[in-house]
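Pasting as-is:
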Amino acid sequence: MSKRRSWKDLTVEDFQKFYNDNYSGMSRSEVAEVDSSFYSTIKKKRLLNEVFPPNKGHKFTSWQIEDFQKFYQENHLGMSRTEVAKTNRSFYRAIETRRLQDKVFPPNQQHKFVSWQVEDFQEYYQQNHSNRSRSEVQKVDKNFYKAMIRRQILNKVFPKSKRKPKSHWGKIDNVQLELDTIIEELGRFPKAGEIKEINNSLCTVIYKYHGSLTQVKIQLGYADKEMAVLKEILEELGDE
């Protein structure tokens, strides 16, 4: 990148070209951070609005609630508040400033599952995900799936899984895909009893095609992690 440091005789068009050649797509604050000389000169000459593209945040100032709702529906439908905050910071910040989160975003689904009975989960599954497999529901409705794992009711909500060919469960990668969801929810590698409660068919194929849960733990590298932690504990005890 070729930066010029003499701004004295430059015209507005020169500043615009320099911005487009060197900082296209960067915000004012980003340019100010990487090239304070260039930014200060533009600011001093009062050319900020002529050199930089319009600040996206400004367009939200005149918006009504309906405008925010429409924009969310058209651009971020299905995304959580945190996901929107990451992908479109200026939009989320405008909503937050106006305190419109509850009017623009759909209700946080995680909360509604707290008071549900098994029958509520079953009815919701039938109405929204009938004939979808566990892995499909996990992808399209993560909060619903996690709530069932937490309550250990997957086997009561989903119909019996269609039997997959032997070659499917013989591959450790396919077992890992199923285990990852449980590990993510529990925050650790599950015990056999926990897997049986959450996903009985998974527990069955682990013992049928891979010998034992211990063998799976070793293949996936979790046994090594546990041994490393145990080694650290023993070393600490030895130092005392």
